[in-house]
Amino acid sequence: TGIDLATLPTGSQQSTKRIPGGWIIDVKPQAGNSGAIIGKVGMPEFTGSSAYLPADDPAMIAEAKRIVGSETGVIAAAQKIRREVYRTMQPNAGIGVLRDAREVFKTKEGVCRDYAVLTATLLRAAGIPARLATGLVTWDGTFYYHAWTEVWDGKNWIGMDSASPTDRISAGHVKLSEGNVDRAFVFPVLGRAKILVLAQS
After folding, report:
1. Which among 12, 16, 177, 201 has the fewest CB atoms less than 10 Å away?
2. For residues 68 and 58, what is the distance between their CA atoms, to the nearest angstrom?
3. Rounded-to-integer distance, Cα 110 and Cα 89, Å
4. How many structural domains is the chain composed of?
5. CA triple 82-164-193, angle to 5 deg
6. Does 142 score more than 70 pLDDT?
7. What is the span of the domain harbouring residue 87?
8. What is the CATH number of the domain that holds 106?
């Protein structure tokens, strides 16, 4: 493609390999470490508040506790939050500005970015390390820009998409950037790049 993808995020769920004329991006979604316990997985820099992610807000903490209940497992609790955000939020493509999680929680509507911001905030409010991920997702053969959330399970960052009904992200979630708002929403412009799906299962 002529575009250098060497700087794309890599890890247990995504790897890149340069080939003649382009790149291969291998996405392998994972379910996560089911034995991870909240408060015992480290990564404190991703459990506190940051811009647009007010995890220390009393309303966010109360909502996170309500959703999680007595669950202590990182992945199980995170999926309860993901499912609740999916259940209560309504899509609204007309919202074009980045909003604080408190505003998203109040209106219960938005685009994928709003879903991800609210989910990450509630996860952190529950004591679960979380960050934002942005990139591309395939839908009916076409790639679109998208945002989702990642949870730290003590070993790896596990993708979760609260704008989707499924617990696990798909192999079509290609990550371009990650982190807090200041980093996650800054990613390379692909321009006229051509993307060909080699295999998906």
Report:
1. 201
2. 15
3. 8
4. 1
5. 125
6. yes
7. 14-184
8. 3.10.620.30
